[in-house]
Design goal:
It is a single chain. By secondary structure, this protein is α+β, with helices and mostly antiparallel strands. The chain has two domains: about 60 residues, no CATH class; about 120 residues, Immunoglobulin-like (Sandwich). Helix 2 packs across helix 4 and helix 4 runs antiparallel to helix 6. The chain is globular, with a radius of gyration of 22 Å.
């Protein structure tokens, strides 16, 4: 893989060379000699077809999780979330020890303790990890979905950027079936606190416990704001907000 430093930028395939961009940088590679038709039909490529099926399944599973979380992901993500999440889903799929080769499922992997552990603690924004932003103990009641912070001092127990004046907390419970892609999510009300030395508590209670089949996820969103003339504005395009999977059941 070579970088392209021409003045004229090309995207697509020209004379057997494929030009593409990653994070704004242009690259070029030689187009493969093996046709899609050969890979799709010849016996020699059966393992390639199996790997492609599982790779595609992992990609659609990551997309299903992102879509199910909706606006929460939009408030806390990084530019490489799609590829990072696909990698995690491949790890979850690899914990499926019962399906035939080429038929590994994320849903089956998540039935195991190992599969759950892969997703537990996942941060949707690589620029803002929960354990690098929140330094206060919290509790999660998995029967009610309530997330609590007690004896909490915002300016001492939250790592925040210069200019931030307020921090908001919101929790959610998601039930997602990775086979059918059916999902249901319940959010808590947003709790907004000034970043000061006042001792306070935060209680995040979801509106309900979602029903339905599939995996259950407990999530926490932390967002930062700057107050100007009584109005709060998202800080730095939300690039330092946190969205974390607290628990997977």
């Amino acid at each position: 893989m070579a970088k392209v430093s021409w003045i004229i930028k090309i995207e697509g395939t020209v004379e057997g060379l494929t030009f593409y961009k990653i994070d704004g940088v242009s690259y070029v590679r030689k187009k493969g000699d093996i046709s899609k038709e050969r890979i799709g039909s010849e016996p020699n490529f059966v393992r390639t077809r199996e790997n492609n099926l599982e790779f595609g399944h992992s990609g659609t599973s990551g997309k299903a999780l992102r879509n199910a979380l909706g606006s929460m992901v939009l408030k806390a993500k990084d530019s490489k979330l799609t590829s990072r999440l696909m990698g995690v889903m491949l790890q979850v799929k690899n914990t499926d020890a019962v399906s035939l080769r080429g038929s590994g499922r994320v849903s089956v992997g998540l039935e195991t303790a190992e599969g759950k552990q892969v997703l537990r603690g996942f941060d949707f924004n690589a620029n803002a990890h929960l354990n690098g932003v929140l330094f206060a103990p919290y509790s999660l009641n998995m029967n009610t979905g309530v997330v609590s912070l007690t004896n909490f001092i915002p300016s001492e127990q939250v790592h925040f950027l210069e200019g931030a004046t307020h921090v908001s907390f919101q929790s959610a419970i998601l039930v997602l079936d990775f086979d059918t892609k059916d999902s249901e999510i319940a959010y808590s009300p947003i709790v907004n606190k000034p970043l000061n030395l006042t001792l306070t508590s935060v209680t995040l209670t979801p509106a309900n416990i979602p029903a339905g089949s599939g995996q259950q996820f407990f999530l926490l969103l932390i967002s930062f704001y700057q107050q100007v003339n009584g109005v709060q504005y998202s800080l730095k395009n939300e690039e330092y907000n946190v969205l974390n999977i607290l628990e997977v059941v």
